[in-house]
Write a structure and sequence with these properties.
By secondary structure, the chain is α+β, with helices and mostly antiparallel strands. The protein has 8 helices and 19 strands. An 8-stranded antiparallel β-sheet has the order 12-13-14-15-19-18-17-16. A 7-stranded antiparallel β-sheet has the order 5-6-7-11-10-9-8. A hairpin with a 3-residue loop joins strand 9 and strand 10. Helix 2 packs antiparallel against helix 4.
Length: 351
Protein backbone atom coordinates (compact mmCIF):
# COMPACT_ATOMS: atom_id res chain seq x y z
CA UNK A 1 0.00 0.00 0.00
CA UNK A 2 1.46 3.36 -1.02
CA UNK A 3 1.13 6.66 0.75
CA UNK A 4 0.39 10.17 -0.37
CA UNK A 5 1.43 13.01 1.90
CA UNK A 6 1.84 10.51 4.72
CA UNK A 7 -1.66 8.99 4.32
CA UNK A 8 -2.37 5.40 3.23
CA UNK A 9 -4.24 4.94 -0.10
CA UNK A 10 -6.62 1.94 -0.25
CA UNK A 11 -5.55 -0.88 -2.52
CA UNK A 12 -7.66 -2.11 -5.44
CA UNK A 13 -8.87 -5.00 -3.24
CA UNK A 14 -10.39 -2.58 -0.72
CA UNK A 15 -12.07 -0.64 -3.53
CA UNK A 16 -13.44 -3.91 -4.90
CA UNK A 17 -14.95 -4.80 -1.53
CA UNK A 18 -16.48 -1.33 -1.23
CA UNK A 19 -17.96 -1.64 -4.73
CA UNK A 20 -19.49 -5.00 -3.88
CA UNK A 21 -20.98 -3.63 -0.68
CA UNK A 22 -22.47 -0.67 -2.58
CA UNK A 23 -24.06 -3.04 -5.10
CA UNK A 24 -25.44 -5.27 -2.33
CA UNK A 25 -26.88 -2.33 -0.37
CA UNK A 26 -28.36 -0.85 -3.55
CA UNK A 27 -29.86 -4.22 -4.42
CA UNK A 28 -31.35 -4.65 -0.98
CA UNK A 29 -32.74 -1.11 -1.05
CA UNK A 30 -34.28 -1.73 -4.46
CA UNK A 31 -35.77 -5.03 -3.28
CA UNK A 32 -37.17 -3.38 -0.18
CA UNK A 33 -38.71 -0.40 -1.99
CA UNK A 34 -39.90 -2.06 -5.21
CA UNK A 35 -40.47 -5.79 -4.64
CA UNK A 36 -41.88 -8.19 -2.06
CA UNK A 37 -38.66 -10.16 -1.61
CA UNK A 38 -38.19 -8.76 1.90
CA UNK A 39 -41.91 -8.54 2.75
CA UNK A 40 -43.40 -10.86 5.37
CA UNK A 41 -45.68 -13.59 3.98
CA UNK A 42 -48.63 -12.25 5.97
CA UNK A 43 -49.54 -8.73 6.98
CA UNK A 44 -51.53 -7.05 9.77
CA UNK A 45 -50.75 -9.59 12.45
CA UNK A 46 -51.12 -12.52 10.07
CA UNK A 47 -54.57 -11.60 8.77
CA UNK A 48 -53.81 -10.80 5.13
CA UNK A 49 -51.70 -12.67 2.59
CA UNK A 50 -48.99 -10.46 1.07
CA UNK A 51 -49.05 -12.57 -2.10
CA UNK A 52 -52.83 -12.24 -2.27
CA UNK A 53 -52.71 -8.46 -1.92
CA UNK A 54 -49.96 -8.31 -4.54
CA UNK A 55 -52.15 -10.31 -6.95
CA UNK A 56 -55.14 -8.00 -6.47
CA UNK A 57 -53.39 -4.61 -6.72
CA UNK A 58 -52.17 -3.86 -10.25
CA UNK A 59 -48.58 -3.76 -11.50
CA UNK A 60 -45.37 -4.48 -9.62
CA UNK A 61 -44.14 -2.98 -6.38
CA UNK A 62 -43.83 -3.56 -2.67
CA UNK A 63 -46.85 -4.21 -0.48
CA UNK A 64 -46.87 -2.82 3.05
CA UNK A 65 -49.61 -2.67 5.64
CA UNK A 66 -50.93 -1.08 8.80
CA UNK A 67 -52.93 -3.12 11.27
CA UNK A 68 -52.32 -5.12 14.43
CA UNK A 69 -54.48 -8.19 13.90
CA UNK A 70 -57.84 -9.11 15.41
CA UNK A 71 -59.19 -6.43 17.74
CA UNK A 72 -60.75 -7.22 21.10
CA UNK A 73 -64.07 -6.03 19.67
CA UNK A 74 -64.20 -7.90 16.35
CA UNK A 75 -65.78 -5.08 14.26
CA UNK A 76 -62.83 -2.84 15.22
CA UNK A 77 -60.48 -5.08 13.20
CA UNK A 78 -58.85 -3.23 10.29
CA UNK A 79 -55.97 -3.70 7.88
CA UNK A 80 -54.79 -1.19 5.28
CA UNK A 81 -52.52 -2.48 2.52
CA UNK A 82 -50.61 -0.34 0.04
CA UNK A 83 -48.56 -1.19 -3.04
CA UNK A 84 -45.85 1.31 -3.94
CA UNK A 85 -42.67 1.60 -5.98
CA UNK A 86 -40.17 4.29 -6.92
CA UNK A 87 -39.89 2.75 -10.40
CA UNK A 88 -41.71 4.90 -12.97
CA UNK A 89 -44.87 3.22 -14.24
CA UNK A 90 -44.83 0.46 -11.61
CA UNK A 91 -47.75 -0.65 -9.46
CA UNK A 92 -49.78 1.48 -7.12
CA UNK A 93 -52.96 1.36 -5.14
CA UNK A 94 -54.32 0.46 -1.75
CA UNK A 95 -56.73 -1.93 -0.07
CA UNK A 96 -58.74 -1.30 3.06
CA UNK A 97 -59.94 -4.46 4.80
CA UNK A 98 -62.14 -4.41 7.88
CA UNK A 99 -64.73 -6.32 9.85
CA UNK A 100 -68.23 -4.83 10.01
CA UNK A 101 -71.70 -5.62 11.33
CA UNK A 102 -74.52 -5.53 8.78
CA UNK A 103 -78.21 -6.30 8.42
CA UNK A 104 -78.72 -9.70 6.84
CA UNK A 105 -79.69 -8.65 3.31
CA UNK A 106 -77.20 -5.76 3.17
CA UNK A 107 -75.92 -6.45 -0.37
CA UNK A 108 -79.41 -5.88 -1.76
CA UNK A 109 -80.57 -2.86 0.25
CA UNK A 110 -77.53 -0.98 1.57
CA UNK A 111 -76.78 2.04 -0.60
CA UNK A 112 -73.09 1.96 0.24
CA UNK A 113 -72.68 -1.25 -1.78
CA UNK A 114 -72.69 -1.29 -5.60
CA UNK A 115 -75.66 -2.44 -7.65
CA UNK A 116 -76.09 -6.16 -6.82
CA UNK A 117 -76.76 -6.85 -10.50
CA UNK A 118 -73.07 -5.98 -11.10
CA UNK A 119 -71.76 -8.43 -8.50
CA UNK A 120 -69.93 -11.71 -9.04
CA UNK A 121 -71.42 -13.83 -6.26
CA UNK A 122 -69.98 -17.00 -4.77
CA UNK A 123 -72.08 -19.33 -2.68
CA UNK A 124 -71.68 -22.71 -1.03
CA UNK A 125 -68.73 -23.40 1.27
CA UNK A 126 -68.18 -19.63 1.55
CA UNK A 127 -70.66 -16.84 0.90
CA UNK A 128 -69.58 -13.54 -0.62
CA UNK A 129 -69.37 -11.24 -3.62
CA UNK A 130 -66.83 -9.35 -5.68
CA UNK A 131 -67.40 -6.08 -7.53
CA UNK A 132 -65.05 -3.88 -9.57
CA UNK A 133 -63.60 -2.18 -6.47
CA UNK A 134 -65.23 -3.97 -3.54
CA UNK A 135 -65.70 -7.40 -1.99
CA UNK A 136 -67.32 -8.99 1.05
CA UNK A 137 -67.59 -12.39 2.70
CA UNK A 138 -69.83 -13.52 5.55
CA UNK A 139 -68.02 -14.71 8.66
CA UNK A 140 -69.34 -17.87 10.42
CA UNK A 141 -72.43 -17.55 12.61
CA UNK A 142 -70.33 -18.06 15.75
CA UNK A 143 -68.68 -14.71 14.97
CA UNK A 144 -72.03 -12.88 14.96
CA UNK A 145 -73.52 -10.99 17.89
CA UNK A 146 -76.80 -9.13 17.44
CA UNK A 147 -76.11 -8.70 13.72
CA UNK A 148 -74.37 -10.74 11.03
CA UNK A 149 -70.65 -9.96 10.68
CA UNK A 150 -68.81 -9.59 7.39
CA UNK A 151 -65.28 -8.99 6.23
CA UNK A 152 -65.19 -6.33 3.55
CA UNK A 153 -62.47 -5.04 1.24
CA UNK A 154 -62.27 -1.87 -0.84
CA UNK A 155 -59.65 -1.22 -3.51
CA UNK A 156 -58.54 2.18 -4.77
CA UNK A 157 -57.99 0.61 -8.21
CA UNK A 158 -60.34 -1.58 -10.28
CA UNK A 159 -59.72 -5.29 -9.75
CA UNK A 160 -59.75 -7.30 -12.96
CA UNK A 161 -59.15 -10.74 -11.40
CA UNK A 162 -62.33 -11.59 -9.48
CA UNK A 163 -60.97 -14.99 -8.44
CA UNK A 164 -57.85 -13.43 -6.90
CA UNK A 165 -60.06 -10.91 -5.07
CA UNK A 166 -62.36 -13.61 -3.69
CA UNK A 167 -59.35 -15.72 -2.69
CA UNK A 168 -57.83 -12.76 -0.81
CA UNK A 169 -60.98 -11.85 1.12
CA UNK A 170 -61.79 -15.51 1.90
CA UNK A 171 -58.25 -16.18 3.11
CA UNK A 172 -58.43 -13.12 5.36
CA UNK A 173 -61.83 -14.19 6.71
CA UNK A 174 -60.40 -17.63 7.49
CA UNK A 175 -57.51 -16.09 9.41
CA UNK A 176 -59.79 -13.76 11.37
CA UNK A 177 -62.25 -16.50 12.31
CA UNK A 178 -59.37 -18.73 13.43
CA UNK A 179 -57.73 -16.04 15.54
CA UNK A 180 -61.06 -14.99 17.05
CA UNK A 181 -61.94 -18.67 17.63
CA UNK A 182 -65.42 -18.18 16.21
CA UNK A 183 -65.73 -20.87 13.57
CA UNK A 184 -64.11 -22.23 10.44
CA UNK A 185 -64.09 -20.72 6.95
CA UNK A 186 -63.59 -23.50 4.38
CA UNK A 187 -60.72 -23.21 1.93
CA UNK A 188 -61.49 -21.96 -1.54
CA UNK A 189 -64.76 -20.15 -2.27
CA UNK A 190 -64.85 -21.53 -5.80
CA UNK A 191 -65.03 -19.38 -8.90
CA UNK A 192 -67.21 -16.27 -8.52
CA UNK A 193 -70.16 -16.36 -10.92
CA UNK A 194 -70.06 -13.15 -12.97
CA UNK A 195 -73.19 -11.40 -14.24
CA UNK A 196 -74.46 -12.60 -17.60
CA UNK A 197 -74.27 -8.97 -18.60
CA UNK A 198 -73.41 -5.83 -16.64
CA UNK A 199 -75.10 -3.71 -19.30
CA UNK A 200 -78.74 -4.12 -20.27
CA UNK A 201 -79.51 -6.77 -22.88
CA UNK A 202 -82.79 -7.96 -24.43
CA UNK A 203 -84.65 -10.31 -22.12
CA UNK A 204 -85.94 -13.70 -23.23
CA UNK A 205 -89.73 -13.72 -23.27
CA UNK A 206 -91.09 -16.07 -20.62
CA UNK A 207 -87.65 -16.46 -19.04
CA UNK A 208 -86.86 -13.09 -17.56
CA UNK A 209 -83.60 -13.08 -15.55
CA UNK A 210 -83.22 -16.78 -16.40
CA UNK A 211 -86.28 -17.66 -14.30
CA UNK A 212 -88.56 -20.06 -16.16
CA UNK A 213 -92.09 -18.79 -16.63
CA UNK A 214 -91.26 -15.25 -15.47
CA UNK A 215 -92.28 -12.20 -17.52
CA UNK A 216 -93.38 -8.60 -17.05
CA UNK A 217 -94.54 -8.17 -20.66
CA UNK A 218 -98.24 -7.93 -19.72
CA UNK A 219 -97.47 -5.43 -16.94
CA UNK A 220 -95.51 -2.81 -18.89
CA UNK A 221 -96.58 -0.47 -21.71
CA UNK A 222 -97.13 -2.19 -25.05
CA UNK A 223 -94.28 -2.27 -27.58
CA UNK A 224 -91.73 -1.53 -24.83
CA UNK A 225 -88.36 -3.24 -25.05
CA UNK A 226 -87.73 -5.26 -21.88
CA UNK A 227 -84.03 -5.46 -20.97
CA UNK A 228 -82.14 -7.24 -18.20
CA UNK A 229 -78.71 -7.10 -16.58
CA UNK A 230 -77.08 -9.09 -13.83
CA UNK A 231 -77.08 -12.63 -12.52
CA UNK A 232 -79.45 -15.33 -13.70
CA UNK A 233 -81.31 -18.22 -12.10
CA UNK A 234 -80.63 -20.85 -11.00
CA UNK A 235 -77.85 -19.94 -8.57
CA UNK A 236 -77.32 -19.74 -4.83
CA UNK A 237 -77.32 -15.95 -5.09
CA UNK A 238 -78.52 -13.83 -7.97
CA UNK A 239 -79.85 -10.35 -8.59
CA UNK A 240 -81.24 -9.00 -11.85
CA UNK A 241 -82.20 -5.46 -12.84
CA UNK A 242 -84.94 -5.07 -15.45
CA UNK A 243 -85.21 -1.87 -17.48
CA UNK A 244 -87.51 -0.67 -20.24
CA UNK A 245 -85.59 0.24 -23.38
CA UNK A 246 -85.23 3.94 -24.09
CA UNK A 247 -88.64 4.91 -22.71
CA UNK A 248 -87.23 7.03 -19.91
CA UNK A 249 -85.04 9.98 -19.10
CA UNK A 250 -81.44 8.89 -18.62
CA UNK A 251 -81.19 9.01 -14.77
CA UNK A 252 -84.31 6.87 -14.38
CA UNK A 253 -83.21 4.50 -17.13
CA UNK A 254 -79.86 3.94 -15.43
CA UNK A 255 -81.60 3.19 -12.14
CA UNK A 256 -83.79 0.62 -13.86
CA UNK A 257 -87.43 -0.42 -13.66
CA UNK A 258 -87.24 -3.23 -11.10
CA UNK A 259 -84.51 -5.26 -9.38
CA UNK A 260 -85.30 -8.86 -8.44
CA UNK A 261 -83.21 -10.93 -6.04
CA UNK A 262 -83.17 -14.59 -5.01
CA UNK A 263 -80.88 -16.01 -2.31
CA UNK A 264 -80.84 -19.71 -1.47
CA UNK A 265 -77.46 -19.71 0.26
CA UNK A 266 -77.95 -21.12 3.81
CA UNK A 267 -75.58 -18.69 5.55
CA UNK A 268 -77.14 -15.63 3.89
CA UNK A 269 -80.61 -16.95 4.72
CA UNK A 270 -79.58 -17.21 8.39
CA UNK A 271 -78.33 -13.64 8.20
CA UNK A 272 -81.53 -12.37 6.57
CA UNK A 273 -83.67 -13.88 9.31
CA UNK A 274 -81.81 -11.79 11.91
CA UNK A 275 -83.05 -8.57 10.31
CA UNK A 276 -85.00 -6.41 12.80
CA UNK A 277 -88.73 -6.72 12.39
CA UNK A 278 -88.67 -10.12 10.68
CA UNK A 279 -91.92 -11.88 11.53
CA UNK A 280 -94.27 -14.65 10.47
CA UNK A 281 -96.67 -13.59 7.77
CA UNK A 282 -98.08 -14.58 4.41
CA UNK A 283 -96.67 -14.45 0.91
CA UNK A 284 -98.76 -13.33 -2.07
CA UNK A 285 -101.43 -16.00 -2.47
CA UNK A 286 -101.57 -16.77 1.25
CA UNK A 287 -98.53 -19.05 1.74
CA UNK A 288 -96.99 -18.80 5.24
CA UNK A 289 -93.58 -17.16 5.16
CA UNK A 290 -91.07 -15.07 7.09
CA UNK A 291 -91.60 -11.42 6.20
CA UNK A 292 -88.54 -9.18 6.39
CA UNK A 293 -90.24 -6.21 4.73
CA UNK A 294 -93.40 -5.99 2.60
CA UNK A 295 -91.59 -7.07 -0.57
CA UNK A 296 -88.77 -9.06 1.06
CA UNK A 297 -89.70 -12.55 2.23
CA UNK A 298 -88.16 -15.94 3.06
CA UNK A 299 -90.30 -18.64 1.48
CA UNK A 300 -90.01 -22.28 2.67
CA UNK A 301 -89.17 -24.67 -0.17
CA UNK A 302 -88.70 -28.40 -0.55
CA UNK A 303 -84.92 -27.92 -0.58
CA UNK A 304 -84.25 -25.31 2.11
CA UNK A 305 -85.73 -21.86 1.63
CA UNK A 306 -85.54 -18.90 -0.72
CA UNK A 307 -85.17 -15.20 0.05
CA UNK A 308 -87.19 -13.30 -2.54
CA UNK A 309 -86.89 -9.54 -2.83
CA UNK A 310 -88.03 -6.86 -5.23
CA UNK A 311 -86.88 -3.24 -5.33
CA UNK A 312 -88.51 -0.69 -7.67
CA UNK A 313 -86.27 1.72 -9.56
CA UNK A 314 -86.84 5.31 -10.61
CA UNK A 315 -87.98 4.08 -14.02
CA UNK A 316 -90.99 2.39 -12.42
CA UNK A 317 -92.04 5.64 -10.75
CA UNK A 318 -91.68 7.53 -14.02
CA UNK A 319 -93.47 4.85 -16.05
CA UNK A 320 -96.44 4.80 -13.69
CA UNK A 321 -96.70 8.60 -13.88
CA UNK A 322 -96.77 8.47 -17.66
CA UNK A 323 -98.86 5.31 -18.09
CA UNK A 324 -101.83 5.13 -15.73
CA UNK A 325 -102.38 1.45 -16.53
CA UNK A 326 -99.06 0.39 -14.96
CA UNK A 327 -99.92 -2.05 -12.14
CA UNK A 328 -99.05 -1.33 -8.48
CA UNK A 329 -95.91 -2.85 -6.96
CA UNK A 330 -97.77 -5.69 -5.26
CA UNK A 331 -98.85 -7.03 -8.66
CA UNK A 332 -95.24 -7.20 -9.84
CA UNK A 333 -94.13 -8.88 -6.60
CA UNK A 334 -96.94 -11.45 -6.78
CA UNK A 335 -95.98 -12.56 -10.29
CA UNK A 336 -92.31 -12.77 -9.27
CA UNK A 337 -93.09 -14.87 -6.18
CA UNK A 338 -95.36 -17.18 -8.16
CA UNK A 339 -92.67 -17.84 -10.78
CA UNK A 340 -89.91 -18.30 -8.18
CA UNK A 341 -92.07 -20.63 -6.08
CA UNK A 342 -92.65 -22.87 -9.07
CA UNK A 343 -89.01 -22.78 -10.21
CA UNK A 344 -87.58 -23.64 -6.76
CA UNK A 345 -90.35 -26.03 -5.68
CA UNK A 346 -91.63 -23.81 -2.91
CA UNK A 347 -95.19 -24.98 -3.33
CA UNK A 348 -98.05 -23.17 -5.00
CA UNK A 349 -99.09 -19.97 -3.20
CA UNK A 350 -102.41 -20.52 -1.56
CA UNK A 351 -101.97 -24.29 -1.26
Amino acid sequence: MTTTAGRARPSWKVWAVIAVLVVVVAGLLHAYRNTNVLTADRLCGGLVSAAGADAVLPGSGRVSAEGDGVAGHLPDTECNVEKSSVVLGAGKGSLSIRVAEERGDFPFVDGRWPDPARASFFSGPVTGAVYDYDAWVLLPEKCWTTKPVILEAHSSEPVSDTTAFSDLITDAARAIAAKAACGDVPKGPGTPLPPRSKSARPASEGRLCGLDGFSVRSQVPADTDVLEAGQAAPAGLWSCTVSLGEDSHRPAGEDGFMTYTVARDPLLLAAVKKAPGTHKGTAPGGRETDVVEPRRIVLPCSDGAAYLAMQPGLQYTETRQRHSGTPPLDAFFESFVRSAAQAFDCGTPGR
